[in-house]
């Protein structure tokens, strides 16, 4: 099973977060709680931004799609991971592995550019408030989201095809808890130069262009806030983008650490910890970041609790 050409390989073995037997059950419950909170939090954001009339703005349109992406990202990873904590043989089929890698890439690239779109939205809201509803019109919002999904899908198909074009001869044991590019290519016994180059090029390009959008947007936002004379005005302007700034800092910081290391410095065990953070912990944290620091979302949640039927327009 672990030898031969790629076409003869039918499954991979995932080592998981830890292969220590005594840790499997505690880790299962830890990640079950994380995934449960992720599902509840993101479904809550999706529901509130869909049904509440006061959250029908571009900012919450993007937030709804960020929640959809976060839910998708964790769902691609967590269920199989949880099953493997309880299984004696932690396997994933060849096609299941390819599908998991493709799904992961769709959502992680989607999150990168959705956060960039949200940064642009905040830039227009603070720097050009009078033109906000014209510049960030419903048509523009739909176009940005559609392009994000289309580009994410294209990237996923290209990168996963390259990764699964190599041969495996010595081992089918993936030192990870899901099928990711780096641990998969580490198993290759054929020349992986082209797939590694493609992975590095896409990772670097995506991070570079999305970070340019984010940093440029926030550079102008900071300048605009500093020009506001009243401290109350500055505080109010800053509060409209504080949640997004926090989410961006955590997400991009983890991705930069993960993907822009030279290959020689890569530690797969260190990468696993970073991966836990951006595939499972960040999707759980984002709904908390955007709800606990956001008065509109908290007010919408209170209205929903008071009259859920009216929120869904059932009465």
Automatic annotation (TrEMBL):
Q: Which family does it belong to?
A: Belongs to the G-protein coupled receptor 1 family.
What subcellular compartments does it reside in?
Answer: Cell membrane; Membrane
So which domain of life are we looking at? Eukaryota
State the annotated membrane topology for this chain.
Answer: Multi-pass membrane protein
* Residues spanning the membrane: 27-49, 61-86, 92-118, 130-151, 207-226, 238-261, 273-292
Keyword presence, Nucleotide-binding? no
Q: Which GO terms describe its molecular function?
A: G protein-coupled receptor activity; olfactory receptor activity
Residue span(s) of domain G-protein coupled receptors family 1 profile: 41-290
- Identify this protein by name: Olfactory receptor
Gene giving rise to this polypeptide: LOC112663356
The principal location of this protein is: membrane
A Gene Ontology CC term for this entry? plasma membrane
Keyword presence, Thylakoid: no
Which InterPro entries does the record associate with it? GPCR_Rhodpsn, GPCR_Rhodpsn_7TM, Olfact_rcpt
The entry's function note states:
Putative odorant or sperm cell receptor.
Keywords (A to Z) from UniProt: Cell membrane, G-protein coupled receptor, Membrane, Olfaction, Receptor, Sensory transduction, Transducer, Transmembrane, Transmembrane helix
Query: Pfam families from the entry?
Result: 7tm_4 (PF13853)
| Gene3D superfamilies per UniProt | Rhodopsin 7-helix transmembrane proteins (1.20.1070.10)
């Amino acid at each position: 099973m672990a030898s031969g050409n790629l076409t003869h390989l039918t499954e991979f073995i995932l080592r998981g977060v830890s292969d220590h037997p005594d840790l499997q059950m505690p880790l299962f419950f830890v990640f079950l709680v994380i995934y449960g909170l992720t599902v509840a939090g993101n479904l809550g954001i999706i529901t509130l931004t869909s049904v509440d009339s006061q959250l029908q703005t571009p900012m919450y349109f993007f937030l709804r799609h960020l929640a959809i992406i976060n839910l998708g990202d964790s769902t691609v990873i967590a269920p199989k991971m949880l099953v493997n904590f309880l299984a004696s043989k932690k396997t994933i089929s060849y096609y299941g592995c390819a599908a998991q890698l493709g799904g992961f890439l769709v959502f992680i690239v989607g999150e990168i550019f959705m956060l960039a779109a949200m940064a642009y939205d905040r830039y227009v809201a603070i720097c050009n408030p009078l033109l906000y509803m014209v510049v960030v019109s419903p048509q523009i919002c739909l176009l940005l989201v559609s392009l994000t999904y289309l580009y994410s899908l294209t990237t996923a198909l290209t990168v996963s095809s390259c990764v699964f074009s190599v041969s495996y001869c010595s081992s089918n044991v993936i030192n990870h808890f899901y099928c990711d590019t780096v641990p998969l290519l580490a198993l290759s016994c054929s020349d992986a130069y082209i797939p590694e180059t493609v992975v590095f090029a896409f990772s670097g390009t995506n991070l570079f262009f999305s970070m340019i959008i984010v940093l440029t947007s926030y550079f102008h936002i900071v300048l605009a806030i500093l020009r506001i004379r009243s401290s109350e005005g500055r505080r109010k302007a800053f509060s409209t983008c504080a949640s997004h700034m926090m989410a961006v800092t955590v997400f991009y910081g983890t991705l930069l650490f993960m993907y822009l290391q030279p290959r020689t410095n890569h530690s797969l065990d260190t990468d696993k910890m970073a991966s836990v953070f951006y595939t499972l912990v960040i999707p759980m944290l984002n709904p908390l970041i955007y709800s606990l620091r956001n008065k509109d979302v908290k007010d919408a949640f209170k209205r929903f609790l008071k009259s859920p039927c009216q929120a869904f327009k059932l009465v």
